[in-house]
Amino acid sequence: MKLSRFASQFSGYNQHDSQELLAFLLDGLHEDLNRVKHRPYINSGDADGRSDEEVADEYWANHIARNNSIIVDVCQGQYKSTLVCPVCGKVSVTFDPFMYLSLPLQFASTRSVTAVVFSCDGSVPPTPFTVNVPKQGRCRDLLQALGAACSLKNGEKLLIAEIRNHKIYRFIDDPVLQLSTISDDDHLAVYKLPKLEKRVNYIQFVHRHEDLDHGNNNSLTSWKPYGVPLLAQISRNEIVTGFDIHELVHKMLVPVLRNPDSLHLAVQSSVSTRTHSYHTDSSKCQLLLVDDSNTVIEKSNDAIRIPQSSLATVFFINWPKADLKKIDTHHLEYLPEVFMYAPPAKRTRGEALSLYACLDAFLREEPLVPEDMWYCPRCKEQRQASKKLDLWRLPEVLVIHLKRFSFSRSTKQKLETFVNFPIHDLDLTNYIANKKTSERQIYELYAVSNHYGNMASGHYTAHIKLVDENRWYNFDDSHVASIDEDEVKTAAAYVLFYRRVREQDIARGTSNGSQLYAKRSHGYSHR
């Protein structure tokens, strides 16, 4: 009741969040105990080529000039935050204070993407590749992973296309496009093409198989799109003949033919495909190419007009039933989903998520969400910059919040993940971006806030180490009981409390003892 007078969100008998309560209490205690009574206005300047150490110290001094309390002394650390504009490359670095670390519970910070790579020079048949890319990555990450997987050469490039209804629906070619725009049930074809210095037009060759219309007295053949389209590129303003078009298709089809010598580039008379006119040589595939007006593309020296298209000009390859038997249709038909869903296997305690893995996910570079765009001072526009956090300085007492509760527009859930967190010797030395700090950053656990239950109802307990006794206790409402140290780690752990262990304490072997901590606690109380 007293608390709800100051923070109405904690009123009533509903379940509340212990981390939110902790944040409110620490912030309130800081405000009440702030030694600064009149806060000066301070504007932190840009780095302007200065060292990170100098800029970080300036930010921290400015922060202390406005916020100076025992809460800051004991509980606050400092981030290094780096923003990079995806368009002009402008880099902005700031150093911000933090009271606690909120770590995501991610088993995987990557996602699996499957796509089929088509070689446009006919050197290899279409080949599926599955690569791992950052969940919050961009198109350039996928291109880099696929390029490594298919051994992309210097003079080659990859063009990713989403296929719908057997045609190219869109090209995914913007290097800064977020991979979250690619759904798990999309179908991706990747075309390996030579790099050309001139601007190019793309031609997609859509396969069609015959579909006899029995309802028509004339029994005319209709054609249905089929399989995965092929893609070729030509330089703009280049004169292209019927021979050139046929040669492009021939080259791309060679890997899918059961007998590569069976492809016969027949000279067609200028007749519509509606007449169903083919050569009678049954041992050869009669390659029949038509444009979108259903006019046959002859194998001749006549120039072929390639219309300008925002996507890719469409030509069709019509396959009679007899000819389909002469090719490996699996290569033309097979285009798996980006990711085939399978229920995740339950992880046992032995396969627990490491606290270090959570920290890695938290510090990984990610693009800002669209609702949190950054104003680039160089572009003079809002940009979806990439953001990278680093730990610069750590507090005496480090509070780590495990983000077990996830919210979306339609769902709320609690993650029951078992996190394997160190009780002794949490070593964060390698996570400190300030490499001029020589002291090791070692922490020891002294308390855990546990949450049992779900989003609707639950129960809190605490595991606390009484350092004077060097013994752990379980606090469960009015019930208090001694527990063994190996009982401290559970899947209910929600907020972790660590204290710094000095290097000289480790050398003296007193990191687990009580005298040093009691003396330090007495010092804090006196202050």
TrEMBL record:
Ranges of residues in domain USP: 1-501
Keyword Protease assigned: yes
Listed GO MF terms: cysteine-type deubiquitinase activity
EC number: 3.4.19.12
Top-rank taxon: Eukaryota
SUPFAM superfamilies: Cysteine proteinases
Keywords: Hydrolase, Protease, Thiol protease, Ubl conjugation pathway
Annotated catalysed reactions: Thiol-dependent hydrolysis of ester, thioester, amide, peptide and isopeptide bonds formed by the C-terminal Gly of ubiquitin (a 76-residue protein attached to proteins as an intracellular targeting signal)
GO annotation terms (biological process): protein deubiquitination; proteolysis
Family: Belongs to the peptidase C19 family.
Protein name per its UniProtKB record: ubiquitinyl hydrolase 1
Gene name as annotated: LOC103646933
